[in-house]
Amino acid sequence: MTATHTTERAVIAKRVDSGTADTTEIRDLARAAGYDVVGEVTQTRTEDPAYHLGEGKVTRLSNVVAREGAAVVIFDNQLGPYQTYNIGNELPERVRVIDRFRLILEIFGQRAQTRKAQLQVELAELRYELPRAEAKASLAKRDERPGFMGLGEYDESREEDIKKQIANIRDELESIEETERHRREQRRESGFDLVALAGYTNAGKSTLLRRLADDLDVDENDDLHPDLDTTAESEDRLFTTLGTTTRRAEVGKREVLVTDTVGFIQDLPHWLVESFKSTLGSVYHADLVLLVVDVSESVEEIREKLVTSHDTLYERNEAPIVTVLNKTDTVDDEEVRRKKDALSSLAPNPVAVSAKQGLNIDDLAERIDHELPDYERERLVLPMTDDTMSLVSWIHDHASVETVDYGDQVVIEFEARPAIIEQSRAKAGELVGASA
Description:
Blueprint: E1 9-16, H1 24-32, E2 36-44, H2 55-68, E3 72-75, H3 81-90, E4 96-98, H4 100-111, H5 115-141, H6 158-189, E5 192-199, H7 205-212, H8 218-224, E6 245-251, E7 254-260, H9 270-275, H10 281-284, E8 288-294, H11 299-314, E9 321-326, H12 333-342, E10 351-352, H13 361-371, E11 376-383, H14 386-398, E12 400-406, E13 409-416, H15 418-435
Parallel strand pairs: 1-2, 1-3, 3-4, 5-7, 5-8, 8-9, 9-10
Antiparallel strand pairs: 6-7, 11-13, 12-13
Helix pairs in contact: 1-4, 4-5, 5-6, 14-15
Protein name: GTPase HflX
Cofactor: Mg(2+)
Pfam families: GTP-bdg_M, GTP-bdg_N, MMR_HSR1
């Protein structure tokens, strides 16, 4: 469904109810999708039901498209099916019309590498297409056949096909999610705490992941977890991370798995968020969530993003949330303090870091250790046998060992997650029973 556009020329269009239209983000999104932005048309007015823009502005848009030789118009708005159709009919022949969410789906489609990511993109595309298929059916009944540059050719069986495909994809995603739930439990039983990175795209989550996992040998991690993606790239571009990327890190005495997830983006419609709920499973089921924000943005922007992030996370999230104010290397200390105060109601006691330069990462590690579930202490007295040596080795791999005394018996003292304590007691019980 999704194509890659490396050379197509695009004109940006945006309407706002009041104020001045800012096209910075939509230009970035267009470039991320591979378009060459060659012009823009903006308007401040209430939405026109038929054309979104006023009719005069649509004529102006058509003229700019013709003058610049553009192949596509990208709206930084959500267009209804009939608006898309009407605008397309006013533009030069063979010029496509896409809105903000169609553009985001194109980017997602280009970045989707795993089967799960590809399924989620396909699900979102089908949900996007369904109302347009319904609109084409309605227009066809009135003998109005939408052309290719509007909504596409009409196929009377398309609606039912879309609904069947959506059902099939949901079933396959549920199967993948079940496998992932099983993996999460295995990792907890192996002694790992699960930490998830969340936040808006381009906040620096991938860079922070690399910084937290700096001591990690990647090949070693791949052997342990062959299902995991390679470390996310750290680039100044939107949607670098589409799937989830997990790496192991040492935080104090703990072995932690840190997962980077798809970035949030403003003004996403419900159907698009819903399509990517599967990706957010690693956030919802973590032991701790690090909500990463770009401290160089304005207080208003950060506040708006925190509110949206909390709305998304609190729906199903069970873990504590720590806000990380990233990119402190781009602002001075006074600005960081001012923003901490201004955002205290939404982000109490945040941690300010520069993932790029490694500033304050130790403080963040201490905070992670503090916020994760408390370790329990245990002392086991075991018979001196070969099987005991195997258990001692297992405890070293899965817990933080304080002392081991070897004599007539083996006495080991350690700290670990409650699940590891339970497993060690069960294994010890079997050893003692076997030696009795």
